[in-house]
Write a structure and sequence with these properties.
The chain has helices spanning 9-17, 61-65, 74-78, and strands at 22-25, 32-36, 42-46, 54-56, 68-71. It is of the alpha+beta class and 81 residues long. The longest helix is centred in the N-terminal third of the chain and has 9 residues, at 9-17.
């Protein structure tokens, strides 16, 4: 398990669904997070300079098996833990 990635998918989903923050998977590229879009749908968002919109995120086995961390700012999401 990568340092700081202490949540399983169910715990990460709880964070997202209660809007307590975004979550980032240990295999995600820096700046990529999961969160809810304006309609309450689980989506991914790249917080980099070129992408500023939510994209639907299917729950694959890879997404389900990762460990997650909570992030609350774009700078935190882009930083290596």
């Amino acid at each position: 398990m990568s340092k700081g990635f202490e949540l399983d998918f169910d715990q990460a989903l709880s964070v997202v669904m209660t809007r307590a923050g975004w979550v980032q998977g240990e295999d995600f590229k820096p700046g990529l997070v999961l969160g809810l879009n304006e309609m309450g749908v689980l989506c991914q968002k790249d917080l980099g300079p070129l992408t500023a919109h939510w994209v639907s995120q299917p729950v694959t086995t890879g997404v389900y098996r990762q460990r997650y961390r909570v992030v609350k700012t774009a700078a935190e999401a882009k930083a290596k833990p």
